[in-house]
Amino acid sequence: MSSGYPTAASSSTKGSTPSVKPQPTNSSATSAYSSQLKDGNLTSYYECAKKPGDSGLVKPLTSGFDPEADATQLKNCLKSSFLNETVIVNILPHRSNAQRQKIRLMYKTMYGKDLLQDLQDRLTGDFESVTVGLLMKPAEYDAYLIHRAIQGLGTDEDVLVEILCTRTNAQIQELGHQYRERMCGLLTFVLYYHFKTVCKCYQL
């Protein structure tokens, strides 16, 4: 999955020790992103931080990329009574995150529906989780993981710690923006409540 930074422990078990690695800070990218926030231009920080020569596990499709054709194939797959998962596997993992966002936008333009939601309606289990992660922007995926970590009984502190301790300030700003957009809540208040509960439990 081409995420732009290490994937959070989405499948971590409670009680396990998260593998937290410090992230190098790109000061020029942080400054560029901060100025964009002031101007109201939420161009992804991860694009600002990109340096020549950087490469992820997923390479962009350099020749023959057609978001309209990809969106059409996915729509035909999803509306079929028999879901052919091979179609999804042959498209999404073979596109970069930027290309997947173009496919998602094209799908919305052509059919008036969110590709992410349509996939969630048809898929289940681990395959759904992976596909959802592939279609989200990095900060959007972090917001999704945090929301899932604090849902229900108990809080998965490992996920919260791994995300919040391995992101730069600019990345956390974008994460907070995505959380407000998707979950209609302020991340600061949500985290304050849950970490306050944890501190009380451990008498901190």
What is this entry, summarized?
The chain is built from eleven helices and no strands.
Structure description:
The protein has helices at residues 27-39, 45-48, 67-79, 85-91, 97-111, 115-122, 125-135, 138-149, 157-164, 169-183, 187-201. The chain is mainly α. Helix 6 (115-122) runs antiparallel to helix 7 and helix 8 (138-149) packs antiparallel against helix 9 (157-164). It starts with 26 loop residues before the first helix and ends with a helix. Mean pLDDT is 74; it is low at 5-54. Helices cover 59% and strands 0% of the residues.
Tell me the distance between the termini. Answer: 37 Å
Output the number of helix runs.
11
Measured on Cα atoms, how large is the radius of gyration?
A: 18 Å
Helix and strand succession? HHHHHHHHHHH
- Assembly form of the protein: single chain
Poorly predicted residue ranges: 5-54
Q: What is the tally of beta strands?
A: 0
Mean of residue pLDDT values: 74
Strand content: under 5%
Kindly state the percentage of residues in helix: 55-70%
- Overall body shape: elongated
- How is the biggest beta sheet arranged? none
Class by alpha and beta content: mainly alpha
